[in-house]
Amino acid sequence: MVECRPSGGFFEGEIRMVNKVTVVGAGNVGATTAQRLAEKELADVILVDIVEGLAEGKALDLEEAAPIEKHDAKIAGANTYDASAGSDIVILTAGIPRKPGMSRDDLLATNARIVQSVVAKIAPLSPNAILIIVSNPLDAMCHVALETSGFPKHRVMGMAGVLDSARFRAFIARELQVSVENTHAFVMGGHGDTMVPLPRYSTVAGIPITELISQERLNALIQRTRDGGAEIVGLLKTASAFYAPAAGAVEMAETILKDKKKILPCAAYLNGEYGINDLFIGVPVKLGRNGIEKIIQIRLLEDEQTALEKSANAVKELVNTLKTLGF
Length: 327
Ligand SMILES: NC(=O)c1ccc[n+]([C@@H]2O[C@H](COP(=O)([O-])OP(=O)(O)OC[C@H]3O[C@@H](n4cnc5c(N)ncnc54)[C@H](O)[C@@H]3O)[C@@H](O)[C@H]2O)c1
What we know:
The protein is of the alpha/beta class. It has helices at residues 28-39, 54-69, 104-125, 138-149, 161-176, 215-226, 228-236, 243-257, 302-324, and strands at 20-24, 44-48, 75-78, 89-92, 130-133, 156-158, 183-184, 187-188, 196-197, 203-204, 207-208, 262-271, 277-288, 291-295.
């Protein structure tokens, strides 16, 4: 008989990390997130999926890679939520990607149901956890998670800006043939076609990219950033991006677990900041052990503010649709 991990996820006396992170959804983004968390020894990881055996299988596979990758993080797979109890962070990647013939509302309703059902189970077991939402449509799913969990708004956030700005940075580095480490880029707004990359605040070794890249090339890089997700779906055909999205979620988790106070673009619930009310949207925030410790307000030029408001309106429309659907 195969020895299963106990319901708590870990064996008695097993070497354990200080932190525990649950990743819900053991698909492409979830499994890669679990792998990166473990390989960086950031936490023990509980991987949960609704498909029987999927999370358990991937967790065991990752555990068997540990001696080669040289880490002692434990990864336990589960079909239920018991093992997630007492998590410091829950990263939510459960959901379906859009398929041909499906309307945006279809995706919205399906993923909202999934996010609602998952958060309803996970929140009471980890009442002090920080929720990082990855499931799409991102900003709207953050609303469902906030409502369902009843958590304070600084402990519910979405991962999108880190990914979008990483894409922008990768394209800037490639354009200028410089190290990605020299790049900083800022992308605000909702996670979608209306996202707002801010070249004025994007730099290479401290130099604004507007000094280094022509407006025409910059426009092309911005457009490629906006279409970044679609470009990868077009190539993969049956899946969407997952290496960079997982890296984005793990950067947020690392910043929180190590209380690094990094400023990262995250989907945060705004209460008047940037003139936006009661809405999750991507803005720069200071992340630490308490979650979102500060929303950083920068002065936007008129056209930037207009673009942000347009993006906020697109998110608002989705949230309103959610309300009509009873969420
Ligand atoms: N925010 C971002 O920047 C970003 C980037 C990439 C992907 N995404 C989104 O993340 C989500 C996951 O993407 P993926 O590529 O990993 O998809 P995937 O299909 O590979 O994995 C999703 C997993 O969720 C599981 N799942 C579905 N319902 C569940 C439930 N009720 N409980 C537990 N698990 C459940 C599925 O069984 C599947 O294994 C999608 O909604 C996708 O659009 C967001």
